[in-house]
Amino acid sequence: MLLEVKNVYKSYKKPFGIIKKESVEILKGVSLSLKEGECLGIIGESGSGKSTLGRLIIGVEKGDCGSILIDGIDISKKNRKVEKEKVSVVFQDYGSSANPRLKIIDIISEPIKVFEKLSKKETINRIIDLLEKVGLSKEYLYRYPHQLSGGQLQRVCIARAIATNPKFIILDEAISSLDVSIQVQVLDLLIQLKKELDISYVFITHDLTAVTYICDRVVFFKEGNIVEEVNCMNKLKNVKSQYAKALLHAAMTMDSREEIYEVQRIS
Ligand code: ADP
Ligand code: MG
């Protein structure tokens, strides 16, 4: 198993708690797993703790209890550098996750420098190769983030995420800030990279339409707990919990995105 989250709890201290140690529980015993080659969707409304779980998995924060295993190794116990190399992350906010003062070449080379020792020429070749993988040409190398569109910049963030050859990537609302037509293009890129590079995804979102487009399995997240799990996307319509039903209903009535996705897929 690539990733195993076992009974993880996480609470934060209330900033204005009356009692000094007053805290609020965000994750309440979360367990899930990700197999090789899989795309697992985590869907839930805003504030349900999805990003918190993402931060625990990439190891920038620690849970209060429970364990997170990557390739069978508990990341809270072992030398995390080795395990960290296996996980990358792409956030919603491509604008702030790419330093505006750095050129694209420097943004993508950041993680490469941490994990590998390459000469300058090797690094440039590597970055050109990564840019091509995400559908950008080498003419973007020396541009700054503000000279790129949202979709192009998110492609740069994806290039940076795959630069270290991770085994899986946490995509935290990675397409949510993009225009709908661009969302489909980025989803298609992610699907293509998944095949090409043999990577897996944890796809965090509040958007069920995107989940049906890219995920193999999905867990419904509510107030820090998994309330339902769907292991086969064809069975999505059979969800039992009120919460999952409501999300499904909202997705079906909300917009015509499914049609836009479909049109793009055919064309
Ligand atoms: P989601 O990604 O599902 O929208 P988050 O994981 O970002 O949810 O947040 C869940 C809850 O945890 C929110 O109520 C948020 O205010 C709270 N929270 C997140 N990070 C912190 C933090 N560092 N300190 C205190 N509260 C936090
Ligand atoms: Mg979030």
TrEMBL record:
Q: Name one Pfam family in it.
A: ABC_tran
Keyword Phosphoprotein among record annotations: no
Q: Which residues form the ABC transporter domain?
A: 3-248
**InterPro entries, sorted:** AAA+_ATPase, ABC_transp_ATP-bind, ABC_transporter-like_ATP-bd, ABC_transporter-like_CS, P-loop_NTPase
Q: Which keywords accompany this UniProt record?
A: ATP-binding, Nucleotide-binding, Transport
Q: Does the keyword ATP-binding apply?
A: yes
* Gene Ontology terms: biological process: transmembrane transport
Q: Name one GO molecular function term.
A: ATP binding
Q: Which SMART domains match?
A: AAA (SM00382)
Q: Which family does it belong to?
A: Belongs to the ABC transporter superfamily.
What is the protein name for this chain? Nickel transport system ATP-binding protein
Species classification: Bacteria, Bacillati, Bacillota, Clostridia, Peptostreptococcales
